[in-house]
Design a protein that fits this description.
This is DNA-binding protein RFX5. Residues 69-144 form the RFX-type winged-helix domain. It comes from Aceria tosichella (wheat curl mite). Pfam families: RFX5_N, RFX_DNA_binding. This protein folds into 2 domains: 1-61, no CATH class; 63-172, Winged helix-like DNA-binding domain superfamily/Winged helix DNA-binding domain (Arc Repressor Mutant, subunit A, Orthogonal Bundle). 51% of the residues lie in helices and 14% in strands. The chain has helices spanning 6-21, 24-33, 51-55, 64-76, 87-100, 108-118, 154-171, and strands at residues 77-86, 123-127, 134-142. The chain has a 3-stranded antiparallel β-sheet. β2 (123-127) and β3 (134-142) form a beta hairpin. It is elongated. It starts with 5 loop residues before the first helix and ends with a helix.
C-alpha cells in the first residue's frame, strides 16, 4: 500500500464505511455499476483499453444487461409471502421490457441467478397437480406502483423518433 498517499487511503476508508451502510441489494447494484477499468493486468498480455480482452480473465463482467436486469427486478417485483408468480410470466414480462428498451435480455438461467441475488428470500417452487405443475417464485408479487427505472440510453432513442416523425410528414 506504500504507493498510495494518505488522502487516497482516507478516501477509500470513507467509501468503505459508506458502502457498509448499504443493504445487500444496494451493494450488489453498486458492484454491478462499477466501471470495468482494470488496466493493470498481469504480464501485459491484455490491451490496456481493450476492456473486452481484460474482462475475459474475470468470470463474469458486470455489464449493462446485468445491471438493467437487477434494476428491473428491484423496481417491478417485491417480496410477499402470500403470493406466488409463475416463473415464465415473470421472465416474459422482463423480456418484453428488454425488447421495448432495446437491450439484450439475459437467458432464462442467468435471469434465475439474478433473481436469486436480487431477492434472496424468494424460493422457486413447483405448484399445481402432478403433470400440470408450473414453476413459480414463491413469496413474490408485482409491485403495484412501479418506479420507472432510469435508463441512461433513452436519450439516444429520441432523435430517431423525431426523424421518423418528419419522414412520416413527408409522405403527406
Amino acid at each position: 500500500m506504500n504507493y498510495l498517499s494518505e488522502q487516497q487511503v482516507d478516501r477509500i476508508s470513507n467509501l468503505v464505511r459508506e458502502v457498509e451502510k448499504l443493504s445487500d441489494v444496494e451493494k450488489l447494484l453498486l458492484y454491478l455499476q462499477l466501471p470495468c477499468g482494470r488496466t493493470e493486468l498481469p504480464e501485459g498480455k491484455y490491451k490496456p483499453n481493450g476492456n473486452k480482452h481484460g474482462a475475459d480473465i474475470f468470470s463474469k463482467k458486470p455489464d449493462q444487461e446485468t445491471t438493467q436486469t437487477y434494476t428491473w427486478i428491484l423496481s417491478h417485483l417485491e417480496e410477499d409471502q402470500n403470493v406466488s408468480l409463475p416463473k415464465q410470466e415473470v421472465y416474459d414480462e422482463y423480456r418484453a421490457f428488454c425488447q421495448a428498451n432495446r437491450f439484450e435480455p439475459l437467458c432464462v438461467a442467468d435471469f434465475g441467478k439474478a433473481m436469486k441475488h436480487a431477492l434472496p428470500c424468494i424460493k422457486p417452487r413447483r405448484l399445481g397437480q402432478r403433470g400440470n405443475s408450473r414453476y413459480c417464485y414463491s413469496g413474490l408479487r408485482k409491485k403495484y406502483r412501479i418506479e420507472p427505472p432510469s435508463l441512461p440510453d433513452m436519450t439516444e432513442l429520441k432523435p430517431a423518433v423525431a426523424h421518423n416523425h418528419n419522414h412520416h410528414h413527408h409522405n403527406h
